[in-house]
Amino acid sequence: MLFPLIRKQFSNVTYNVIRSASTEVKRRAWNESETTKLLKLVKKYGRDWDELAHHFDDRSKKSIRSRYFYLASKFTDAELNATVKAEVKRKWSKVEDRLLSELVAKHGKKWTHISTFMKDRSNADVFQRYQVLKYVEEWTDEMTEELFRLKDEYPNDWNLISDKIGTMSPEHCKRRWHYIQSTPDVVDDSPKNLTDEQIVQLEKAVHRFGLADCNSIKEATGLHHINSEELKEYYMTEIDPSLDRSEWTEDEIKQLVNLYHELEGDMKLVRSISFKNRRLSDMHNQYQLYKNIAEINKRH
User: Fold this and answer.
1) Three-state DSSP state, 44
2) Which of 75-79, 128-132, 164-168, 210-214 has the lowest mean pLDDT?
3) What are phi and psi for residue 277, nearest 5 degrees?
4) Cα dihedral sign for 131, 137, 143, 144?
5) How many of the other CB atoms lie within 10 Å of CB of 42?
6) What is the dihedral of CA 201, 206, 208, 211, to 10 degrees?
7) Smallest Cα–Cα separation from 275: which of 261, 294, 257?
8) Distance between CA atoms of 44 and 46, rounded to whole angstroms?
9) pTM listed for this prediction
10) How far apart are CA 214 and CA 174, in angstroms?
């Protein structure tokens, strides 16, 4: 009997939202080649959206402009090309790092030959990655944790960080930091993976020190490995007691779905515009629920 109740509860909002959303052009996420192409074209033609649109068969001026300013909002113009190039390039995994080390031990530093064993990695890729790996084994877990703490306290001041570490040069510290940032499974550094106990500790620390004092919060909770901005954002979007946890109205769901489509699936941007008091995870759940119910109704 659960299914009829679900259909009855959501039928009106589902059909209304489907009616308004069905007129939207189906949107695709930007892939790596498209992003790289966009950056090259902007470098050549500047922000001439009409001209840029001629080079994309199925991207509107609005989509192109939104994608560029999304990237520009994250990085300064001076570092845009280099940073985004690194962003769209596939990250190295621990499995690849281990394979690379084994291949070098077996074949020597024959980068062209080694690259034939590694999918989508050029001889330059494997050489550059090996230069990074040379520095990894020298670091202990304690030193790495200290590096995280110092990086938050003295952002990008590698000389001072090196002095505090004591045994590593500024270049060593910088390479270690970038190695950890570029390898997705080296450190469990996502606040989404906090345990219930860690969340309780975080709540107490924020209540005691205030959200702005991330150094004290990390010291009290032991969460040195999590980026300060990510930790603050997670607290504000998921844990903050002032967030609205009430049931969603039909109007809210409709607005959520329409905005999500209009902004090409950027749920954080949707939240910043219209749902600042809602938990980000609740927004994702509500949208997924809408999709599931819409699919059920299509079958009947």
Assistant:
1) helix
2) 75-79
3) -100, 5
4) positive
5) 19
6) 160
7) 257
8) 6
9) 0.39
10) 22
CA distances from 177 to 133, 180, 185, 228 (A): 12, 5, 14, 15
| Phi and psi, residue 76, nearest 5° | -70, 160
Mean pLDDT to the nearest integer, 161-183? 77
Q: Tokens representing 209? A: 């020190």
Q: What angle do CA 101, 104, 109 make, to 5 degrees?
A: 135
241-266 residue pLDDT tens:
899 989 899 999 999 999 988 888 88
Tell me the per-residue pLDDT of 74-88, one tens digit each, with 9 for 90 and over.
Answer: 555 555 555 454 444
Alpha helices (H) along the chain:
2-21, 32-45, 49-53, 61-74, 77-88, 94-107, 111-115, 123-133, 141-153, 158-165, 170-182, 196-209, 214-221, 228-234, 250-262, 267-274, 280-299
Say yes or no to pLDDT of 23 above 50. no
